[in-house]
Specification:
alpha+beta; about 40% helix
Length: about 100
C-alpha cells in the first residue's frame, strides 16, 4: 500500500484517517490513536515505514473494538504484532 486512505468502512461505519503534524500532536508517547467515539484514526506525521505500521496498528484496534474484542484491543503487544503483520502483507503484496 503506497498511500494511506482518507477513510474506509468497517461494519457499516466510516472510519476517518487523519495525519497530524508533530507540533499539533497531543498524545504523548503515542504514534497513532484510534478514537472509537469519533470513528477516527489519528496518526502523527512520521517516516513512511513507521506511518504505515502505525496505521495498521490503529486499524487493528478499530477492527477488534468493532467486533467486541475490547480485551484483545487493550493488549498493545498483540495489537502491535497483528498490525505489523498486516503492514507487511500490504507492503509486500504483488498485484
Amino acid at each position: 500500500m503506497k498511500r494511506l486512505p482518507k477513510s474506509f468502512r468497517l461494519l457499516g461505519h466510516t472510519i476517518a484517517v487523519r495525519i497530524i503534524n508533530q507540533s499539533d500532536w497531543k498524545y504523548k508517547d503515542e504514534w497513532g490513536w484510534w478514537d472509537p467515539n469519533k470513528n477516527e484514526i489519528l496518526l502523527v506525521r512520521q517516516p513512511r515505514t513507521q506511518l504505515r505500521h502505525s496505521y495498521w496498528h490503529e486499524v487493528t484496534h478499530a477492527m477488534l473494538d468493532m467486533v467486541g474484542q475490547t480485551k484483545l484491543s487493550a493488549d498493545e503487544r498483540f495489537v502491535d504484532q497483528i498490525g505489523g503483520l498486516l503492514a507487511q502483507i500490504m507492503d509486500t503484496a504483488e498485484f
